[in-house]
Amino acid sequence: MLHLTDLFKDIETELGIMKDINNFKAVRDLISHWINTRSFIKKNRRKGKKIVGICLPPCDLIYAFQNTLPIFPLRLHLGTFDALSNADISLKNAVNEGEAFGCETDQCVQIRTIYGCILLTKDLMDFWIGPQTCDKQTKIWEIINENFLPVQLVDAPHKTREHDFEKMRDEFDLLFERLVNLTGFRPSDDDLRDSVLMSNEIRSKWWKVYELLKNKVIPIHASTIINILNYGIFDWFSDPQFLKRLLNDLYDEMAEKIDRGDSIVDDKAPRILIAGNGTMEPQLPDIVETLGGIIIAVTMRYEWVYPQVDLNIRGDIRNNIAKHQLEIYHSWRTQPRLRFAKKLIKDFKIDGVIYNSCWGCRRFSPAARLYKDELQEELGIPVLLNDFYMFGEHLDQLKTRVGAFIELLTG
Ligand code: SF4
């Protein structure tokens, strides 16, 4: 029988994720699920399920349509052993593909990657939900709609005034009807409630896993959490029952190792928060660990499973979903996110912040200076500003800068 560790044996064995494959059954299960993503999606499509591409939460609505599966296209693109084990090359291929088909090079790497991944996997999807969280995205979703896949644009108001809520509710109703047309299925309010209950349960299990990282004993490598587990936040890995089991198992295994004092880092290792853009250099977690630090939290991911964003199931469930969606969009504004970063810094005993700025992003990148000034002044937390343009670029420079930052944190 071929084991995962044999499959991956040619890959650089010093990577944190390789060590976690050896040490955690839950991580082996996760990687097995991941490298079977394409065959899993193809199998479900043959059974008549509609595959809905999605790049932002929540997937509560999609799971209410019982013959439908959500998929995050980046996971679909990397969803084979070969693609995952050469992730840096696969991601660059996606960016090149996006640029070759109309994506301007002044777009942020996030859009260039997602667009390329959609182009490379479009034959496995039936529909795309295009959130308009920034003006740069809209143009790309329009190109996809005209040439490749039917798209429903979803506007994303960033404030929570009454008319923003009405707008969000209208957007939600349009999306709902479009999914009814696509699938031929009209979920009842009870179907919506069941889906929301499941999502709430997943979010709470997810947060429990994150909370284990408040301990001094850190049993798992950040690369596993950031480069693999966190991608499930978009689509629940297209299999919520699998995800629930996985989070339970991962929690138990991590808790057991914490009880035994089985840490991957020195308990004096500086604890780092990643803020700013969600797309970052995939090697950053391993670089930080090799240089003696550890990434403990990521604002862009943690806020999606934070318990306060649980959805209310009482009353008008459609209103509740629309309100919840609006709150998520609102939480991405500079001040709410900065407040959340401060909360994480306090709760997870963070020593330093790396602010990840995607080149070309006019939304999150300009806030970098504010974080630097405010976190330093108010909390005495040093902030390293990291400009990110493309995967695998300027790694030596990144190592030098992170090394100097960790030295600063260790005093
Ligand atoms: S990173 Fe910035 S520019 Fe890119 S999609 Fe997000 S908000 Fe838009």
Q: How would you describe this structure to a colleague?
A:
It is a single chain. The chain is α/β, with parallel strands linked by helices. It has a domain at 4-189: 3-Layer(aba) Sandwich (Rossmann fold), CATH 3.40.50.11890. It has 21 helices and eight strands. The protein has a four-stranded parallel sheet, sandwiched between helices. The chain has a four-stranded parallel sheet with strand order 6-5-7-8, with helices on both faces. Helix 8 crosses helix 9 (109-121). The protein binds iron/sulfur cluster.
Outline the fold blueprint.
Layout: H1 4-7, H2 16-23, H3 25-35, H4 37-46, E1 50-53, H5 60-64, E2 68-71, H6 73-77, H7 81-85, H8 87-100, H9 109-121, E3 127-132, H10 135-147, E4 151-155, H11 162-183, H12 189-211, H13 222-227, H14 232-235, H15 240-260, E5 271-276, H16 284-290, E6 294-298, H17 299-305, H18 317-331, H19 334-347, E7 352-358, H20 368-379, E8 383-388, H21 395-410
Parallel strand pairs: 1-2, 1-3, 3-4, 5-6, 5-7, 7-8
Helix pairs in contact: 2-3, 3-15, 8-9, 11-18, 12-15
The chain binds iron/sulfur cluster (SF4).
